[in-house]
Amino acid sequence: MINSQSITDLIGNTPLIEAKNILKNEGVRLFLKLEGKNPGGSVKDRAAFNMISEALKRGDIKKGDTLVEATSGNTGIALAFISKLLGVKMILVMPENSTQERIKTMRAYGAELILTSADDGIEGSRDLAEQLHKEKGYFMLNQFANNDNWQAHYKTTGPEIWRDTNGEITHFVSAMGTTGTIMGVSTFLKEKKPNVAIVGAQPKDGAKIPGIRKWPEAYLPKIFNRDKVDQIVEVGEKDAREMANRLAKEEGVFAGMSSGGAVASALKVSETIESGVIVAIICDIGDRYLSSDLFE
Q1: Per-residue b/e over 201-210, b at no fewer than 16 CB within 10 Å?
Q2: Which residue ranges make up the annotated binding site for pyridoxal 5'-phosphate?
Q3: Fewest beta carbons less than 10 Å away: which of 93, 162, 167, 169?
Q4: Delimiting residues of CATH 3.40.50.1100 domain(s) in the chain
Q5: Any catalytic annotation for residue 104?
Q6: Inter-CA distances, 27 with 23, 124, 153, 233, Å
Q7: Does residue 111 register a pLDDT over 90?
Q8: What CATH class does 66-137 carry?
Q9: CA–CA separation, 253 and 229 (whole Å)
């Protein structure tokens, strides 16, 4: 008998490694959750699979239907490969200044891609996806308002972190974009350990960090609940860039700028406590940024 798996069976159960070189506080341990080890290369595999599969189960969509979704990158890649496996068609709307690696990967997986003006940002992509949904009748998952997004992390990411830290986690740190990761993990961990500190990283005013956003009020994700985040750390673009490079050089962890922002925020937290176990999300892989100037 041949023992085999579907590629979607490989989503989740990502490694948790300890950072050995970037942390100087001897009373604190810092662990990195390597979400780039998911088959699509990012934490977004979890939400993409849960959103499509649950929509199919409920009958919201059926095989052969066309879906449309706005993305800044990682969610689009995850939706592109998972949609094909689950039998639905995917149209992705994304700002034109996204890295070539992202654009080519989505097309390689067979998704149709519509690029919007860089000046309009992800907000412009969201507006166009909404327009296509209304005018063409395409189904929109709407990751920003879809409870299946955060519930993916309540079902998988949170329990994995709790298991792999033996419940010793004291602080969880995540970049905030759609906020699905931090909402789901917070909900689970707070049920297990109410005093665990949930820390969100967001960019300082004017900082451009792919994957981390400070949303205008009109575009604030509907799944976001401020009460589930104990502390918000604002991170600068320079700090996020430098930490992404340090992670590669000092820890052997090759990841993008949002991961750098999350770890830079985790180090700020480590400076305020005498002891603790911090877990930070490394949301993707650095290969996705090689055509940018991140590692120059």
Answers
A1: bbbeeebebb
A2: 74, 177-181, 258
A3: 167
A4: 7-38+157-289, 66-137
A5: no
A6: 10, 45, 29, 21
A7: yes
A8: alpha beta
A9: 26
CB 96: neighbour CB atoms within 10 A? 14
Task: Read off the pTM.
Answer: 0.95
258 is catalytic: yes
139-148 pLDDT per residue, tens: 999 999 999 9
Q: Which residues contact 233 (CB under 8 A, 6 or more apart)?
A: 173, 199, 200, 201, 202, 265, 268, 269
The alpha carbon dihedral of 237, 239, 242, 248 has a sign of negative
pLDDT in tens, 208-230: 888 888 888 888 999 999 999 99
pLDDT of residue 48 exceeding 90:
yes
Mean pLDDT across the chain: 95
**Three-state DSSP class for residue 92:** strand
Give the Cα separation of 13 and 136 in Å (integer). Answer: 38
CB-based contact 55:40 (threshold 8 Å): no
Residues 98, 125, 186, 258: which is the catalytic one?
A: 258
Q: Copy the structure tokens of residue 154.
A: 């309540």
Domain covering 7-38+157-289 in this structure, CATH number: 3.40.50.1100
Residues 6+ apart with CB under 8 A from 69: 75, 76, 79, 90, 91, 92, 93, 129, 140, 141, 142, 143
Active-site hit among 33, 42, 44, 186: 44
Could you read off the pLDDT of 228-265 as tens digits, one per residue?
999 999 999 999 999 999 999 999 999 999 999 999 99
